[in-house]
């Protein structure tokens, strides 16, 4: 019985070793371009996702120094004639070369209307060696001397080398093709910029960039000054004639951005609230001043009535 158990264990171990695959390949071509490298979805027939690890631990790996390093993990399942439930997820940690060029340029499922069971990952060229391991045979094929030709139900699609990373590539973290739900009641922390509907690198000046409508029950803007200085005794209130002259010349209120400025630079919500409050407080002072004049006129008219009544 013990011999049978050991034999079964050895057989399982041998099968496990056989199921794994590892090796290396070299991407030639230009060091400034990213070339298609095809990988098989080895888990498709077993109804599991393929898990592929790509690495270059040594930044000085040949052919020369400072060519970049990478530890990346791709988990994917191809659509294969439109079976859906397909995805390509990437977890990339990389260091670029001296020119600042990363190692991964993008990835694509190339099986929408064919049974090739392949994805392509665009990797930087320049005769760079890459090392891989996977949960099955992924059969890497490098296309650094010719483009990758995708058959799309009889029509050929050409995938040429990339000259820059695709915008969806998170070169230093996670890229998920599907959505994510975070169900924990604990806080989540984001140190870098966040984009919703827009890649954050396209608007790096914003911590949160949103392409679309934001719905909220309450918005609180902090770190903004307020306009109560208008009510201080040393504030110089412009005369209404000065305001009128400015409007006739500039077609907007003084201290308020013009239509052209808003179109070019956008609207700073907190700053605009402060500017609008300044105008409201100035209007209040104008009204108080006009009310005093009206009150003075009322008093003078009452006195005139008393004189006329005598």
Number of alpha- plus pi-helical segments: 4
Distance between the termini: 134 Å
| Oligomeric status | single chain
Taking the sheet with the most strands, its summary is:
6 strands, antiparallel
Q: Which structural class do you get from the secondary structure elements?
A: alpha+beta
Count of folded domains: 2
How many strand units? Answer: 14
Lateral arrangement of strands in the main beta sheet: 1-8-3-4-5-12
SSE series:
HEEEEEEEEEEEEEEHHH
User: Radius of gyration over alpha carbons?
Assistant: 34 Å
Helix coverage percent: 10-25%
Strand content: 25-35%
Average pLDDT: 90
Essential attributes:
elongated, 2 domains, alpha+beta, 310 residues
Please explain how this structure is put together.
The strands form four sheets. The chain has a six-stranded antiparallel beta sheet with strand order 1-8-3-4-5-12. The chain is elongated, with a radius of gyration of 34 Å. A hairpin with an 8-residue loop joins β6 (104-109) and β7 (118-124). The chain folds into two domains: 21-175, no CATH class; 219-309, no CATH class. The protein has four helices and 14 strands. The longest helix has 41 residues, at 269-309. The chain is an alpha+beta fold and 310 residues long.
């Amino acid at each position: 019985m013990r011999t049978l158990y050991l034999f079964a264990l050895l057989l399982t171990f041998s099968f496990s070793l056989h199921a794994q695959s590892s090796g290396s390949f070299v991407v030639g071509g230009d060091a400034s371009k990213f070339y298609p490298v095809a990988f098989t979805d080895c888990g498709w027939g077993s109804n599991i996702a393929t898990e592929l690890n790509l690495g270059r631990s040594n930044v000085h790996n040949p052919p020369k120094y400072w060519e970049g390093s990478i530890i990346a993990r791709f988990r994917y399942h191809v659509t294969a004639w439109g079976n859906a439930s397909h995805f390509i997820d990437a977890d990339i940690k990389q260091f670029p070369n001296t020119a600042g060029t990363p190692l991964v340029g993008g990835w694509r499922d190339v099986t929408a209307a064919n049974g090739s069971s392949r994805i392509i990952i665009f990797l930087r060229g320049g005769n760079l060696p890459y090392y891989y391991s996977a949960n099955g045979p992924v059969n890497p094929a490098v296309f650094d001397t010719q483009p990758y030709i995708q058959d799309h139900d009889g029509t050929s699609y050409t995938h040429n080398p990339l000259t820059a990373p695709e915008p969806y590539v998170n070169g230093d973290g996670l890229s998920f093709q599907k959505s994510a739900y975070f169900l924990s009641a604990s806080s989540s922390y984001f140190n870098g910029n966040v984009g919703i509907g827009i890649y954050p690198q396209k608007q790096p000046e914003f911590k949160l960039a949103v392409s679309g409508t934001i719905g909220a029950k309450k918005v609180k803007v902090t770190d903004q000054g307020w306009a109560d200085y208008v009510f201080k005794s040393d504030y110089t209130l412009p005369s209404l004639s000065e305001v009128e002259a400015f409007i006739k010349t500039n077609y907007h209120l003084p201290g308020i951005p013009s239509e052209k400025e808003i179109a070019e630079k956008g609207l700073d919500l907190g700053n605009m609230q402060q500017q609008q409050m300044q105008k409201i407080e100035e209007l209040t002072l104008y009204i108080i001043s006009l009310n005093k004049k009206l009150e003075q006129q009322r008093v003078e008219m009452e006195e005139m009535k008393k004189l006329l009544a005598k």
